[in-house]
Amino acid sequence: MSRLFQLGKDSVIYGIGGILSKGISVLVLPLYTMLFTPVEYGTIEMLTVIATFLSTIFAMGMDSVQSFYFFQESGNGKAGQARLVSAVLQWRVLWGGSLVLLCTLTSPYLNSWLFGGELSWHYFAVAFAGALLAQVMGQGIELFRLLYRPWPYILLSAAQAILATAITLLLVYVLNMGIFGYIIGSTLASLVIALLTLYMIREYLIFNEWITGWWPRLIRFGLPLLPAGLAFSIMSNIDRWFIHYFHGDTVLGYYAVGAKIAILIAFVSETFRKAWWPIAMDAMHGSDGPETFRMIARLYMGLCVAGLVILTFISPWLIIQLAGPEYYQAWQLVGVLAWQSVFYGFYLVASAGIWKAEKTHLAMYLMTGTALLNSLLNYLLVPAYAGMGAALATAISYGVWVTVTLVVSEKLWYVNFPIAVLFAQVVSGVLFLIWYLLYWDSTSLLLQTGIVTVLSTALMIGALDRRNRLAIMARIFQLWTPAAIPPAGANDVLLSLASIETQPKKSTMTEQSIANQESSMTPKNGSLQ
Q1: What is the distance between the alpha carbons of residues 318 and 310, in angstroms, rounded to a whole number?
Q2: Tens digits of per-residue pLDDT, 11-31?
Q3: Within 13 Å, how many C-alpha atoms sit on residue 95's CB side?
């Protein structure tokens, strides 16, 4: 139970950061859809996809390298950690800068292939430079997490999003710079926050020498992570490539707007990932590991599916309010696209055995297989069904990914996940989504509201097993009972029931005798329920 409350506490902290940083992109969506046509919005989305793909190559696993070796170097003090952080930064700038130059030189081919020659090389140069600056900024911000300082991490991330929005609106709305203004705004914001972050972590940086001695170790550790990173990038973005190729920027623009609304579920999954990971690493090596993972699996999936149901229900209204009538058709994509974030967040739970057994190389094979499956499904579905085909392909691929991961993980470390409960949660969300997409316009709002209320409530209540529901209810009673007044009898009963279910059963002769004496008063299976 303590891990559940710890997860809740950490989720609140990182949830604030997620709302501040990613919430900005949702709040300014009405302005962007007013300033950009669907075609222009599709062009921006495609440039973002290219920059994201290159970011994976820029990173080359260095984030994991820094996290892994930072605590290992604690024995050498801050000086040893500073050499590590500086070595990673130097390699990142040298490697990334070379790639920015190389990719900019090849940009005319990208322009001709993807954009019909409509963009100049400046667009690509600024976008690629922005991707590298975001990597540098991210390294510094991530260091605050390693130092257990979440607030600088949160505030710097939010500052980048706010500054990027302000600069973009100035360049696009006031100076009428169009798509190029959007790209410059993001790049300049990353530059400013990167410089500020480097200044804040200056005690961990060495500027007067090249720490080349670390580079072979960094490359040996990080390079094997690159294929998995590329596979995941393909998993996440291949849908945009197929939409662009078969249907052009207009359809991609609608798809991008639907994805922006679906990102509301990503708030939950990203918050969960940041808060859950350190707890998972601790629980994995504790005696309560399997129990903790079972509890969190059920809790996460139940709450996320409930959120997905609610988001799907209000998506037509959200599209109208945030994007305008021109993008109204994008609402049908929101609920389907939200499954990607739900399954992505669940992966950290499903992959417990892979991490426990230290067989992380399996993650690369699983991601590669999923990337191939996603590509095949997009190839089959996008030509005929456009954005809906891409959304379905991505959702199905991610669902297969976490399912196979769960099966493999269970073989490596048996957690005994509540498969039936998880299956019921997912199926209920899928059935609601199908019903709503087919009958939303022929069903009264009152009936829709009632179904959503009942289903989401049932999912949230069912997200906790009986023992944890009793424990939470007992905690609530304690919080609401004044100190001068003894706890109510209901509170005592709840605490007793919760404690009974947490106590391990013993097969002693004394207990067996008591059980025999009470056989006429209790069911044969000894159930207290």
Answers
A1: 12
A2: 555 556 555 666 677 778 788
A3: 23
